[in-house]
Amino acid sequence: xxxxxxxxxxxxxxxxxxxxxxxxDYARGLGLEVFGFVTVEVREGGSRVGFKIIDVNTGREAWLxxxxxxxxxxxxxxxxxNVRAMDEVGVPxxxxxxxxxxxxxxxxxxxxxxxxxxxxxLEEVAPKVHFLGTVxxxxxxxxxxxxxxxxxxxxxxxxxxxxxDEVYGxxxxxLNRVLGRPI
Length: 183
What we know:
A hairpin with a 2-residue loop joins strand 5 and strand 6 (79-81). By secondary structure, the protein is an alpha/beta fold. A 9-stranded mixed β-sheet has the order 5-6-4-3-2-7-8-1-9, sandwiched between helices. The protein has a single domain, classed as Rossmann fold (3-Layer(aba) Sandwich), CATH 3.40.50. It has helices at 16-29, 83-95, 118-125, 143-152, 164-178; strands spanning 5-9, 34-44, 47-55, 61-66, 75-76, 79-81, 102-108, 130-135, 155-158. 33% of the residues lie in helices and 29% in strands. Helix 1 (16-29) runs parallel beside helix 5 (164-178) and helix 2 (83-95) packs parallel to helix 3. It is built from 5 helices and 9 strands; from the N terminus they run βαβββββαβαβαβα.
């Protein structure tokens, strides 16, 4: 059996999370179970103050990063990262994926990689699931991420505001192909 192996990259705010949510909805419509997590930005007064991680299957969520919470921990840019959120929500969401299901991971990025178990969980689960995720634009500079992408033969697609619908069609077409459905 062949599996979907797609990662989407692109600048912040281009629509990566929206895209993988759309594909997840499409997959559910085909009867495919969906596991994994999305990361959503949280705004207060028009300014981004942080990110929450949400398990797409259970709805469980936690603060992944915030501009003022979690001081004393690791930082990425102006955000203090709550590594426990990845260990308690993200990693279990990955490991809960059933064989043959669709795993969505939003994202493989600097914050998520602060968890020692994150990449290990991806390596454990990837061989037995369809995998759609997002990846930070500088992924090639991280040997662990680059190796993961190469080992599992991921196609990395650059998303822009002008190609969003086209990329959605490409991913849905690829999913239908690996599932043996008419395209």
